[in-house]
Amino acid sequence: MPMILLALLLWLLAINAITFATFAWDKSCARRRAWRVPESRLLLLAFIGGWPGAKFAQRRLRHKTVKMPFARQLNNVPPWQILVLGCGLILWASSGMRDLNGLVTSVFAQEEQRPLPRRFGPGS
Length: 124
Description:
Order of helices and strands: HHHHH
Number of helices: 5
Distance between the termini: 39 Å
């Protein structure tokens, strides 16, 4: 699996777990009448990749299902993600940086590959 796809998969797993946990924390705060997590933060977590975790938490925990402005905004996250991703792909394609290997190498710089010592060679 290419390194960029592995990094993306790990990001999505982490951000969805964090988003679910944040929704659960907010639900707990709501029950205790404590300080709540701002809706803008919940929406930001959904926007940066945690939308599936947010929707799962919303249904599983029955949290923020009655508050229609928030529910509507949460349902509008995927179209915005597609729009931003599409614009990003257009900019990326027009920049001339079409080589993903170059991108991966620059993002995840690896150590220099040193030649292995010869164990068996002439005169051994």
